[in-house]
Amino acid sequence: MTIPEPGHHESTDAVVSVRNLAKRYGALTAVDGVSFDIYRGETFALLGPNGAGKSTTIEILEGFRDRSSGDVSVLGRDPQKADLAWKAQLGIVLQSSAEAAHVSVREQVEQFAAYYENPRDVDEVLDAVGLAEKAKTRIGKLSGGQRRRVDVALGVIGRPQLLFLDEPTTGFDPEARRHFWELIRSLKADGTTILLTTHYLDEAAQLADRVAVIANGRLVEIGPVDTIGGADARVPVVRWRDAGGLHEERTHTPAAVVSRLFAAGAGEPRDLEVIRPTLEDVYLDLVGTQVTDAATTTESTGAAHV
Fold first, then answer.
1. Closest CA to 43 of 192, 150, 186, 158
2. Other CB atoms closer than 10 Å to residue 135's CB: what's the count?
3. 3-state DSSP: the chain helix, strand, coil percent, rounded to 5?
4. 92-121: burial string, b at 16+ Cβ within 10 Å, e else
5. For residues 108, 111, 115 and 118, what is the CA-based torsion angle, rounded to 10 degrees?
């Protein structure tokens, strides 16, 4: 599959620009020629299975890991050479954090606010993340979802231009996840650029403007949520059952197929479904194809590539 070269966005320049990024550990290649842009004010989801290279990519963007080759610009600077002033423009919400359980929510957020020259108002941040009523509560007594809200409060208190969210709703119940989604949407509406990683594909579909899929260290697809994978990957499937068993038909005109079945059978067929592929379906197909291709290459060359 050919990935189009990143180009100029219609409305603004790139906040993040990555060209031919590679990271090698001896004979092991963790990231192999990855290129993409992230534009100001958008939510960009970087998706991929464990070990695909996305965590390494993000750590390079955050300045925590050096690259082997390629060009990277984040907020106009090379993360490998950036200073503390540059780092102050980033907000980072890790998958796991180490808040002090014995201090209150307000005390923790105030402590982080003191690290920045022009932080957001603590009360405004607590209200924005839904923790105003928990401001005096010790962090150790919060629920998992409330602790994640503390993480986000700490990530945004310094007015970051770019916010990294790593698996932000892992362990959330469905209601807490949807409340968290509203919080992320409010941050986006406030102009924050967001880089999201998540294993919940419905979360990426709900929050992201564009998604990129990385597998075996390579970028295999990138584009808007509703077009990624191409038109063929999103053809609906009509499924039904009759005396001959279970049938299904992929078609661009599912209503016409249903009408035909209805007319032919003098009524609605049993177990009739019209299934429209989701982002998760497209993602699994993309990743599955890459895993198969990698296995075939390994067998033919006798070399493993991660």
1. 192
2. 16
3. 35, 25, 35
4. bbeeeeebeeeebbbebbeebbeeeeebbe
5. 90
pLDDT of residue 266: 65
Superfamily of domain 1-6+13-89+161-171+184-224: P-loop containing nucleotide triphosphate hydrolases (3.40.50.300)
Two tokens at 282?
Answer: 């497209």
Tell how strand 237-242 and strand 245-250 pair up.
Answer: antiparallel
CB 64 within 8 A of CB 12: no
Dump the DSSP string for 39-73. Answer: ETT-EEEEE--TTSSHHHHHHHHHTSS--SEEEEE
Question: What percentage of the chain carries pLDDT values higher than 90?
Answer: 46
Tell me the whole-structure pTM to 2 decimals: 0.79
Q: For residue 141, what is the DSSP state?
A: G
The closest of 151, 206, 155 to 182, measured between CA atoms, is 206
Q: Which two tokens stand for residue 121?
A: 């108002």
Residues of the chain with CATH 3.40.50.300: 1-6+13-89+161-171+184-224
